[in-house]
Amino acid sequence: MRADRLVSLVLLLRQRGRLTADTLARELEVSTRTVLRDIEALSAAGVPVYAERGRNGGFALLPGFRTELTGLNHDEALALLTAGSGRGEQVFGLGSALASAMRKVTDALPESHRVTASDAARRFLVEPETDLLSRRPVPEEVAGATMTEIRRAVLTGHQLRIHYAATGQAPQWRTVDPIGLVTVRDRSYLLATRAGADRTYRMSRVLAAEELSEPARRPDQVDLDRVWRERCAQFLSGDHIAVLVRVAPQRREDLLSSAVAVRAAAPDPDGRLRLEVTYQDLRHAEWALWQLGTDAVVLAPGALRTALRDRATALASLYGDGDPARGA
């Protein structure tokens, strides 16, 4: 770990010039005292780092010093920098590793390509926090220690104990055989098997995790994209009901928060959104869409349209004649 941090420290000074100890500490996610110790270690190893005193002081490298990292051409580095410029820092607890890797990628470029590739990467924006229709949902949080244990078990092929809080149930410990990790729409999932049966666990509901020494019972090779598609199809083919609805853009997040899943989304010419979503059953769909009032119009299925019409008719009859005594 310290060796990686020392390399990152050198790359930060190479790419950004003079930096204070406080700035380096923030970038490396360590204390200022640790940064000062690392600076001393670099100096002792012959790296030409020096301190500048005063108000605008800090640490810097002697001009011309360069680490030897080669092998990437301009387009290869641009692809990596663009991928790393999105929201990857929130995926699977790999934020620090991603930041370190991006510094190494930048430093690996020849001098003539370094500035142009970094500038080009800033021209591409991947998965921004907002879109043209509404604000994206806030990503779900997973404790760092929990994510580390899960990630390690997935990569080493060991069994995993998780303390999982399923919807409407008290948290329970369970032992699973991890297959892989998936992130979609700011939500992360652990794909696993339990006693040979397929299981998909929402990461935000894992309260604690422990990697075990026993090997996981799983194939040596896995097509995670295929497994995810199969699990999605299985999930959506249950007792759920599919609903086609037109909704006002400002109520999009309200609609999505009550739905089980989203199958398709597209804008309509009049500015509304046409969404295909699933609910647990007809009663769930009726309750959820009633909350949106006239901001949502159900196009299908007919049974749901009928249920909403009957509910609206019954409500209108209570208030239609203006007689509160009769309505009671």
Could you give the topology of this structure?
Blueprint: H1 2-16, H2 21-28, H3 32-44, E1 49-52, E2 58-61, H4 74-84, H5 95-108, H6 111-121, H7 144-156, E3 158-164, E4 172-184, E5 187-194, E6 197-202, E7 206-215, H8 224-236, E8 241-247, H9 252-258, E9 261-267, E10 273-279, H10 282-290, E11 296-300, H11 302-319, H12 324-327
CA-based shape: elongated
Query: For the report, how would you describe the main beta sheet?
Result: 5 strands, antiparallel
How much is the radius of gyration in Å? 27 Å
| Spatial strand arrangement across the major sheet | 6-5-4-3-7
**Distance between the ends:** 72 Å
Structure class: alpha+beta
Helix content: 40-55%
Strands, count = 11
Low-pLDDT residue intervals, each spanning 5 or more residues: 68-72
- Mean pLDDT score: 79
Helix run count:
12
DSSP strand content: 15-25%
Element order: H for helix, E for strand: HHHEEHHHHEEEEEHEHEEHEHH
Description:
The longest helix is centred in the C-terminal third of the chain and has 18 residues, at 302-319. Helix 2 packs across helix 3 (32-44) and helix 4 (74-84) runs antiparallel to helix 5. The chain contains 12 helices and 11 strands. The protein has helices spanning 2-16, 21-28, 32-44, 74-84, 95-108, 111-121, 144-156, 224-236, 252-258, 282-290, 302-319, 324-327; strands at 49-52, 58-61, 158-164, 172-184, 187-194, 197-202, 206-215, 241-247, 261-267, 273-279, 296-300. The chain has a 5-stranded antiparallel β-sheet with strand order 6-5-4-3-7, with helices on both faces. Mean pLDDT is 79; it is low at 68-72. The chain has 328 residues and is of the alpha+beta class. 41% of the residues lie in helices and 24% in strands. Strand 1 and strand 2 form a beta hairpin. The radius of gyration is 27 Å and the shape is elongated.
